[in-house]
Design goal:
CATH architecture of chain A: 3-Layer(aba) Sandwich
Structural class of chain B: alpha/beta
CATH superfamily of chain A: P-loop containing nucleotide triphosphate hydrolases
Distance between the termini of chain A: 33 Å
Number of domains of chain A: 1
Strand order of the largest sheet of chain A: 6-9-10-3-11-12
Number of strands of chain A: 12
Order of helices and strands of chain A: EEEHEEHEEHHEHEHEEEHH
Shape of chain A: globular
Number of helices of chain B: 13
Helix content of chain A: 25-40%
Number of strands of chain B: 19
Largest sheet of chain A: 6 strands, mixed
Oligomer: heterodimer
Structural class of chain A: alpha/beta
């Protein structure tokens, strides 16, 4: 078991958002989490990553046999958890190259490895850039500064490729993407899928799942996972809409 | 073995006096306080020619008529100017026998800065072979420079060996009557650097005070004069990223730069004097007058400063753009943390036609500190078709600090253009979380973000200086968030 979430309750400013989430993810799996807006999908992603504004009031998360909730944000990252942000933030003046080099070497240090030499790092970057089909000038620019929506999301996928996470959570990576960008993002994920890693793909629309075929689909509604199934559940949702779930809950 | 090498070192360090002006000076102190007698004492001790004594006395008499300025956005404890020793013969710092005798906190900082072990010993005042090295380096260095006709020596040495040049240029950019602290410096200055680049010569190396061994002891009332003749070029670096402690609380330096026709002077400084402790106790008062004049057409003066130290900083490196088409630049990063106060900026005086100036100021405030940018852009009536671009950014860390901007703009003709941009921002939780989610801890994340913010200025620094300055910025802000 890679990730096990048991009866997770979380709130922000005393408002409970997650009301008892259960989820189990094994290596080699791709899980899709779907659901209407405002039901707690992004909150779930943030809590797994360790964002402090969310308070976990009940339940536990076990990651690779460890109590994840006891770990600092950067420690979770170094242990292989990656969050692809819905709204990646701009960091003016910090080039993607410099940012990634710092991140890669911090993670290597944590694992007891020597930092990558400049040449090895550039080689790694070229390789990953090819993988996610991004052009060379993107990495010379400051992190997300002046990027289009599509460029920001491609940059998230590029960073994911660089850091080779064990568990990647993609928070609405498809939102605001045209079909070409969507395809590039999805291809990136597909190329990175391996038997020893796992993906949790959060999305509002079924569209992304035409490109990234999930093993499991979960519907998050009002802070709980109310329905789980195989990839055909996504199609059913597309056809019947979320009203179908809402009605079933009432 | 150990004691053998110590003996050798002892001999060598004694010999050091050979190389500086200090040879013929006895170890003596001037009496505490400041009178004409003190000035005469200093001048006599330094065996100065008559014109120097005259200059000092005129400055002193003028200083007596002046009051300490209070217009800066600073809170300054009263200074008792009669309680200062204005002259002490340069003395060797107390030597320690090994790094184990050095303050561990200081060593930790050295390590973070990536300063080599040998260098660490030198900075901390531990006797090492490096002394031998730097003597020989200094000698070869001077030989190389003299081939080009470049003069680079202590100010005192220049007074003895090149009195005509000193007489011609000293006080020509910062007159002794300029301001309270400039008058004080002119009366009592101890020593400093002198640099002269003759006509048409491009100085082949960055000149650094590092190569002037006794520069380390001239901190309190330092005086620097840089002259670049027609078509000459020099890049000059002052200061040191290693933390500098000094028992003298008041520092009032003067730097004058003269650039003749087609000359270019690039002046870079990193200032890291002791800022006081976390409660704001102690720390250096750094009241500096720095000014350059572009005397001829097409001359260029560029100031780049990274200010992280001192309890109080009062400093406005300025350019007088007298020659037509001359250029002035000011790039500054000023960091204040804990209880530090900084009131810093520049003055760009456009007097010649088609003159251009650029001001990039990046203030970073943390803790309970106060950081002000104060800048004047004046375009005189005859300075037609002149341009200025100013960008003043402030970055706040936490909510107990202050950032202030005081721009003064005077434009006296219609053909000139002045642009001023200013921003104030905070390091956001989102930015920190984003970095941490990529495996970068909080301290490193702040370092990364701050260096990104200051990049436009840091890239103006000579390469090796820039690398050190980057580390210094991160270290100066440690513990300021979270």
């Amino acid at each position: 078991m890679l990730l096990s979430i048991n009866d997770l309750h979380a709130s922000i400013a005393d408002k409970e958002i997650l009301k008892g989430v259960h989820l189990e993810v094994n290596k080699g799996e791709v899980h899709a989490i779907m659901g209407p807006n405002g039901t707690g999908k992004s909150t779930l992603a943030s809590v797994i990553a360790g964002r402090e504004v969310f308070e976990v009031t009940h339940g536990e998360i076990t990651y690779q046999g460890k109590n994840l909730l006891k770990m600092a944000v950067e420690e979770r990252a170094r242990e292989g958890i990656f969050l692809g942000f819905q709204y990646p933030v701009e960091i003016p003046g910090v080039s993607i190259t410099n940012f990634m080099r710092t991140a890669v070497n911090e993670i290597r240090k944590y694992k007891g490895l020597d930092p990558l030499s400049g040449i090895d790092f550039m080689r790694l970057m070229e390789e990953k850039k090819k993988l996610v089909e991004i052009t060379s000038n993107l990495t010379n620019r400051s992190v997300n500064e002046g990027f289009s929506g599509g460029e920001k999301k491609k940059n998230e996928i590029f960073q994911m490729a660089m850091l080779e996470p064990t568990l990647a959570i993609l928070d609405e990576t498809d939102s605001g993407l045209d079909i070409d960008a969507l395809r590039i993002v999805a291809n990136g994920v597909n190329k990175l899928r391996r038997p020893d890693n796992a993906f949790v793909v959060i999305t509002h629309y079924q569209r992304l799942l035409d490109y990234i075929v999930p093993d499991f689909v979960h519907v998050l509604f009002e802070g709980r996972i109310v329905k789980s199934g195989g990839k055909e559940l996504a199609l059913e949702l597309e056809e019947k809409g979320y009203d179908w779930i809402k009605k079933a809950q009432e | 073995m150990e004691s053998d090498s110590n003996n050798i070192l002892h001999e060598v360090t004694k010999q050091e006096y050979k190389y500086g002006f200090v040879t013929d000076i006895d170890t003596e102190f001037a009496p505490r306080g400041l009178t004409e007698d003190t000035i005469r004492f200093i001048s006599a001790k330094k065996n100065e020619p008559e014109f120097m004594l005259e200059f000092r006395l005129k400055a002193f008499r003028h200083w007596l008529t002046m009051k300490q300025p209070d217009w800066a956005h600073l809170t300054i404890e009263p200074i008792d100017f009669q309680d200062i020793i204005y002259y002490a013969a340069p003395k060797k710092k107390k030597e320690l026998s090994g790094l184990d005798q050095v303050d561990p906190e200081l060593l930790a900082t050295f390590n973070k800065l990536g300063i080599s072990l040998e260098e660490q010993k030198k900075l901390a005042g531990v006797a090492v072979d490096a002394v031998i090295d730097s003597v020989s380096v200094k000698t070869t260095f001077s030989e190389t420079l003299s081939k080009y006709g470049i003069i680079f020596c202590s100010f005192s040495e220049a007074v003895q060996k090149h009195p005509d040049l000193v007489k011609q240029y000293m006080g020509s950019v910062v007159p002794y009557s300029d301001n309270f602290f400039a008058a004080l410096n002119s009366a009592v200055f101890s020593d400093g650097s002198f640099c002269f680049i003759p006509k048409g010569v491009r100085c082949p190396v960055d000149l650094s005070t590092y190569f002037r061994i006794n520069a380390a002891n001239t901190g309190q009332f330092e005086r620097t004069l840089i002259v670049a003749e027609e078509g000459a070029y020099v890049s000059y670096m002052e200061g040191c990223t290693a933390p500098q402690r000094d028992e003298n609380q008041l520092h009032a330096a003067i730097v004058e730069i003269v650039a003749l026709k087609d000359a270019e002077v690039k002046y870079s400084t990193v200032q890291n004097w002791y800022p006081g402790d976390k409660e704001g106790k102690g720390g250096i008062y750094n009241f500096v007058t720095k000014r350059g004049i572009c005397k001829g057409s097409n001359a260029k003066i560029s100031w780049t400063q990274v200010e992280t130290g001192s309890a109080i900083t009062w400093k406005y490196p300025s350019c007088i753009l007298l020659g037509d088409n001359s250029i002035g630049e000011f790039y500054s990063v000023a960091v204040t943390n804990n209880h530090q106060q900084a009131d810093t900026g520049t003055k760009m005086q456009h007097l010649g036609k088609n003159t251009r100036s650029t001001i990039i100021s990046k203030g970073i405030s943390a803790g309970k500190s106060n950081n002000s940018y104060r800048g004047l852009v004046r375009i005189a009536k005859n300075a037609v078709n002149s341009r200025n671009y100013s960008q003043c950014d402030s970055l706040l860390l936490g909510s107990a600090c202050g950032a202030h901007t005081f721009p003064y703009i005077q434009v006296e003709n219609k053909s000139s253009i002045v642009e001023h941009e200013a921003t104030t921002s905070k390091i956001s939780e989102d930015q920190l979380f984003y970095c941490q989610q990529r495996g970068i801890d909080m301290e490193s994340a702040i370092g990364l973000i701050v260096n990104g913010y200051a990049k436009e200025v840091l890239r103006q620094l000579p390469m090796e200086f820039a690398v050190e300055a980057q580390k210094l910025l991160s270290i100066s802000l440690e513990g300021s968030v979270g």
